[in-house]
Amino acid sequence: MASVCKDGNGRRRIQYQDLNGKRPSIHLGKMDERTANAIAGHVDELVEARRSGRPVRKETANWVSSADPKLLQKMGKLGLIELASSAEKPNFTQLAEEHFFSRMDIKASTKSTRHYWCQVIAEIIGDKPCDRYTKLDGEKLRKGLDDRGIAKPTVARMLRFARQIFGCAVRFEYIEKDPLENLRYNFKEGKLPDRNYIDLKPFEEMVASLPLPWKLLGVLARYAALRTPSESLLLRWSDVFLDAEHPYVHVTSPKTEAEGKTYRTVALHHRLSDLLREVKTAADPANDFVVDLPAYRRPRQNGAHGVNPRENFNRLIKKAGFTPPPKLFKTLRSSCLTDWAEKLSMPRTAAMAGNTVPVAAKHYLTNRSSDFKKDYDSIQTIKAIQDDKKAAQSGANHCQPSADMQTSNALKAGPIELLGALEKAAQKAAQSVQVYVGKDGNFKNLSNTEVLTVPGLTQSYPIVPDIKIYPARIRT
Predict the structure, then answer these.
(1) Given 37, 65, 254, 268, which is the most exposed site by the fewest CB atoms within 10 A?
(2) Burial class of residue 59 (count of CB atoms within 10 Å of its CB; 0-12, 13-18, 19+)
(3) 117, 160 in Cβ contact below 8 A?
(4) Computed over its alpha carbons, how large is the radius of gyration of the chain?
(5) Contact (CB, 8 A) for 174 and 89
(6) Beta strand 433-438 with 457-462: parallel, antiparallel or unpaired?
(7) Secondary structure percentages of the chain, helix, strand, coil, to 5
(8) Rama region for 287: left / alpha / beta (φ>0; ψ in -120 to 50; rest)
(9) What is the model's pLDDT at position 411?
């Protein structure tokens, strides 16, 4: 017979004798004694029905159909009831279809890639009801992805996708715990990405012998920071304004359209403007796309395009006798952003790149080898200016006594000497020599009258102060 036991803090559990003579427990949590006794009566009925092989009474059957799913899960694991709902629980692919692929806020290209991931995961660990997966399936999944030679960052993303789907199963109470909860996928969010830089001269040598569409694909990434291939292949001639006073392009951005930024405006480098004019002259009027590579614009299949532009681009570069940089298109884009950041403000650089300032700084801006020499030269220039300024100030202080000293000496000499000293000080103030720093960083010694005629000078300090700053009793 089932009995109700009291645990600490108002918690209760039911103990009963199963068909094997053991006494398992069903933990009920916090519950009043009357309800716990009622559940214990249903447990007795379920045990007796299984022992005798008779049907369960209607009252207990009705209770089972309306009881708490979590309690029924516990009873099903103990063999008290048949988990009829187990067969009704969705498979992994059904879960993904219901809670991921049906969402309207996810792009079609992302769904296509995740569909492929879902197929690979189902092939490795099987497509079975979500409550039948265990922790061993998680280890099996990671090992299976590694054995297929998939890159580690992609393996980490696929494991996170699987955990996302099982998280939906937990949230909708199909399962109590995520079987991949303790699975480590060796992915660090805070790790800085690898960034490279390619200078303009080696880039031009590298793309000089490429076919025109491929050259244009590289130039758009290096001189306009277009995401390649997603933005470059969507660029149309109607988005290119070469006849404007300042040529520019409207770049359609699929990546940022979910945030309401469907396109952005990018100013054109003269090298890119010249190439676009050359391409437009020879372009087919019936083709509105700037980059004439129609095979790369077809819909995705099995998570990817039928052809890979980066691999083909690298193959053409190697054929020309050059070594392509790693992560080719991202390297070209980050190189362009690094050049922009040297001459433009960071908000403007990020706006033309289609990023926020933190994202542009973290993922694209690159330290170049030439930056060290520029920083060193700048530091030396600043030091030289400071040394010259200190030398000029020291020389001026030794050349003549201050006005306060002259006046103090005159006061000691007498009234006549005082009037003479004041007159000389007034004449000196009218022609006082002052130190100025020009835009070129050089010091200039000019009088008060000359300062008014020289543009672009910044006053540093007067060697001889104006007589007007003295107290009234001395000026009179």
Answers:
(1) 65
(2) exposed
(3) no
(4) 40
(5) yes
(6) antiparallel
(7) 55, 10, 35
(8) beta
(9) 45
